[in-house]
Amino acid sequence: MLKEKIFNPAILHENRLAPRSSFFAYQTIEAALQNDPTDAYGYQSLNGTWDFQLSNEENVTAYEHKIEIPSHWQFQGHGQPIYTNVQYPFPVDPPFVYKDNPTAFYRKECWIDELGPEYILHFSGVESVFDVYVNGHYVGYSTGSRLAAEFDVTPYIKSGNNEICVQVKQWSAMNYVEDQDMWWLGGIFRDVYLFCQHPQAIQNITIQADLSNDYQDGVFEATMFFKPDTRKQAAKSIIEIELTDHNDVTVLNQTQDLQTNTKTCSLSGKIPHVTPWNAEEPYLYQLLIKHYIDGALLEVIPLQVGFRHISIEAGMLKINGQRIVLKGVNRHEWHCETGRSLTYDTMKQDVLMMKQFNINAVRCSHYPPDTRFYQLCDQYGLYVIDEADIETHGMDIVQRINELSNSDVWLPTYLDRGERMVASNRNHPSIIFWSLGNESGYGENHLKMAYLIKHLDPSRLIHYEGEARYWKTFGVYSQCEASDVISTMYTSVEEMIKQGQTPLDQPHILCEYGHAMGNGPGGLIDYMDLFYRYPRLQGGFIWEWIDHGLLRKDRSSGETYYSYGGDFSEEIHDGNFVIDGLLFPDRSPSPGLFEYKKVIEPAQISINLQEKNYHVINRFDFRNLATLRPVLQIKHDDQVVYLKELPRVDLQPQEEKCLPLPDDALACLAAIRHANITIFFFEEQKAAFTLENASAWGQGIMDEPKPEKICPRKGNMFACSETIDELTITLANQVFIFQKQTGAFRQWIVDGEALFIKPLQMNFWRAMTDNDLLGSEEFDAAIIGDEWEKYRIRYLKERLLDFQYKQSPEEVKIDVKIKTMPISLDWGIQLFFTYRLSITGEIQVEVRGEPFGKGPQTLPRIGMQLMLEKEHQHVEWYGFGPHETYPDSCQSGYLDWWKKTVAEMHTPYVRPQENGNRMQTKMFLLSKDSGKGLRVASDALNFSVHHYTQDNAAQATHRNQLVEANGIEVNIDAAVQGLGTASCGPGILPKYLLLNQAFHFEFTMHYLT
């Protein structure tokens, strides 16, 4: 019975076939070259509609529901998902799980016209354990949710109708080693299919494709495995291998006769002058393995082959002899509507987006993904850390993190998962590391697992972060034994500098850094600088690729939003900690992804207008920079006045040079007063020369545009009147009203229409980001939001100290002195405002601040806020864009003229928070459809505009809780605090902190009519 096995970690499977590499056999060469699995021998997909019943009974005879496979049953209306990060959602009593644990019963009928010789039933992924029955006969049992399981069902299959039944348990002993930071889900969530094979068929294939002769020549070996008891049935059996290049030229062809009872057959050869595989130039050869019996073609197996060599030399990780920098991401399998059940198109979308955004590596966190993902990585070029489906992080809550990793009882589980991962995926050149799992402490089981994997595949490196963490508890990162590299998580810039300066024989990588939760991550450029400064520091993997939000619809408003932990009445959960990706749940890129693309760009460009040249560094590891198309663009105001493709830059990896700007470009610049000069680098296939399409870019600025000088209307005169409460200044068609009791600029009336819904006043607060709200002792990151709350920055109250005004024919000058202090505390800021109303209708605002008392170290922002009449929906600005920028996340800020709507200025974080800031803004305009609008100008300011209030964003927990205000909230800031990664990692670097110290800023406002 299923229930008798599920809590016994010694029972890993019953009747499951030995693990093998992933491939399909075809009956013709033409079909093999197409490599469409649906054309494979005897292939029959079992995806689709199944009968389904979720029940507490041990057996069911009535199936009351239908369910689509592959899927999680929680996404099909049965049960609820649970999200935890570290903690187990059940008492820690391994191997037992105290949890309501109904059985999911699946049933499907399939039709077979004519029986083939042998039938294999394949499951690509089932969470968490399952039994299989065919036509009422028990077939077998398997564990390992994210690993393929195959069963020989030949004795049970018959011609005609066949009934396949599967019984799945979500909760089992295996949950103790599947405690990854993700949703707890159940079901047959990957493909299920049948296929045929002959008794003499190839059972398994291993490929070795290495390099020799200074990485010039290929060394190839293919080993085929057979059933030991079937070879005598073949009169004459021949294996032929043929390896062809992209031009369909055969570079290797060998044959071998097989002897009776042969268990293995190896064919090998050397290929001179091969084209090596790397992530930048992922060259693949086509391999066909042809198997003949008595002269007739029995089967053809296609595989893609990439020649590459992995090594560690002088403490550096090298591919094909070249030091590389890993510019990677951690990728969970996730879709907001289907969970971990992904289509091929979604996998391809992920890979293509990674390439588009300059990413060169992916860590399969924290389990092997669908095998088709590796094929895409092979094809498009991504280095892969393939990770075993092992994580025992919940044991850390009870201070027993190393227990299972040292337990003999659990050793078979560790070895089983490591062996199956390697056996299935070893033929993919994209995989350069085998990882022993994630956050499972460190113990003997890891050492034995590493030994097994090295025995199975000595060509690759072993990765395991837990070992370095273990040694760090003794004070230092030292040489690892199981892992070939020192791998750490969220290590600070300061600590990474120390590691870079420490002479060790192993490279250091960050398997997780730049925690992308909410608005962030900040400080990526500071890490990337270290990866090129210190040879042993070789990059890392941002945590993580995508937010794990679940798409939902607000029943009252119909608005869609994304749910996270706690939204399903879980007993325990970890909230929105699962919302931590560079992609939003709908796979649209966040500002953090644009920032990462810029930081890891393949060319670093700087333009020196004084020297009339530009400097470029090739940051590729293998490609010559001449493979990219350089384009020079000159913009004057908002117009492109020069756009021309430049000569290719012949520059080898990591080389740099200065190149002159073209004479005609210099002549163009000489004819204009100010300009934005940009050099872009584009991939060959990109047709449109746009910022979005550029792989790399660098900017130079010649002067900068200034606001047009405003001439006063003839006969303009000020008329001032005052009451006890207000000062009213009239100038032609405009009225300016100041509150004398508070000092606030309360209202601005133009042509009889009031502009302000709320007055212009100081603002030091922001709706806290996830990085503001969270912190970590492990990474020495204090919760900065706690300090802000402690000093009650959001509750600052103002007291007017002085209000004076002076009128002259040219201006009205208003001086205001205010003291602002928080409730219950005695620190504060003395504020000095000077408003100068010009006869032109322009208002110059000057603000000084002098803190006093023992206040907070930092402030969220320093600026002014107003609420503008809501018809001003159009935004134009000259400054960084198009997306938001913050002090430690602004490398991707492109200085230009931009146009958006107020709605488009919003960044739709799953949990609402501070967003939408644009740095280095010289001027911005908020206008109506008519073109009338408020223009604000300064030397350099930050601004943001929102349809909702700051307080609403602070209180809302989901997007659908943002309520459109009756005006547009406008922030005009001198400075804002950086972002950091304190939600899981280091806090904000000191240079990006907004210190609570004296400040001064000014800007001008003018209403265009």
Radius of gyration: 32 Å
What coarse outline follows from CA principal-axis ratios? globular
How many angstroms does the end-to-end distance come to?
A: 81 Å
Mean pLDDT comes to: 96
Q: Please mark out the parts with pLDDT under 50 across 5 or more consecutive residues, or reply none.
A: none
Query: Number of DSSP helices?
Result: 13
Roughly how much helix do the residues carry, as a percent range? 10-25%
Task: Give the beta-strand count.
Answer: 59
Explain how this protein is built.
The protein is mainly β. Strands 48, 49, 50, 51, 52, 53, 54, 55, 56, 57, 58 and 59 form a twelve-stranded antiparallel beta sheet that branches. Strand 23 and strand 24 form a beta hairpin. Helix 2 runs parallel beside helix 3, helix 4 runs parallel beside helix 5 and helix 7 runs parallel beside helix 8. The longest helix has 15 residues. The mean pLDDT is 96.
